[in-house]
Amino acid sequence: MKLRTDQSLIAKWIKQNTRVLDLGCGDGTLLANLQKEQNVSGYGIEIDGDNIIKCLEVGVNVIQTDLDAGLSQFENNTFDYVIMTQTLQAIYYPEKLLIEMTRV
């Protein structure tokens, strides 16, 4: 799996053995790479059914949900990193989601 340029830059910032939540994870490429190269654990959040299948095929734990519903299923400080690339523009309530990102 080849990372996009933005994903490569993000991957360099993520420390080994950390917990990562990838919001709007698409086909799971970034999280799969982080699992392999950085030994991270975590979840991807995705709404598209085809991408959910792709995530599962590459071994990414994925939850199908609408990010506008928030992240209430996660407790405070569950993750060391929360990633969101190419998703914010599709969110109806971006301020709410950004607050939730800092909480989890």
CA radius of gyration: 13 Å
Beta percentage is 15-25%
The major beta sheet can be summarized as: 4 strands, parallel
Give the tally of β-strands: 4
Sheet with the most strands: spatial strand order: 3-2-1-4
Give the helix level as a range of percent.
25-40%
SS-derived structural category? alpha/beta
Mean pLDDT: 96
Number of domains: 1
Outline: globular
* Fourth CATH level, the homologous superfamily: Vaccinia Virus protein VP39
What does this structure look like?
With 104 residues, this protein is of the alpha/beta class. It has a single domain, classed as Rossmann fold (3-Layer(aba) Sandwich). The protein contains 4 helices and 4 strands. Strands 3-2-1-4 form a 4-stranded parallel beta sheet, with helices on one face. The model has no long low-confidence stretch (mean pLDDT 96).
What's the quick description here?
The protein has a 4-stranded parallel sheet, with helices on one face. The protein has 4 helices and 4 strands; from the N terminus they run αβαβαββα. The protein is of the alpha/beta class.
Keyword list:
globular; 4 strands; alpha/beta; four-stranded parallel beta sheet; Rossmann fold
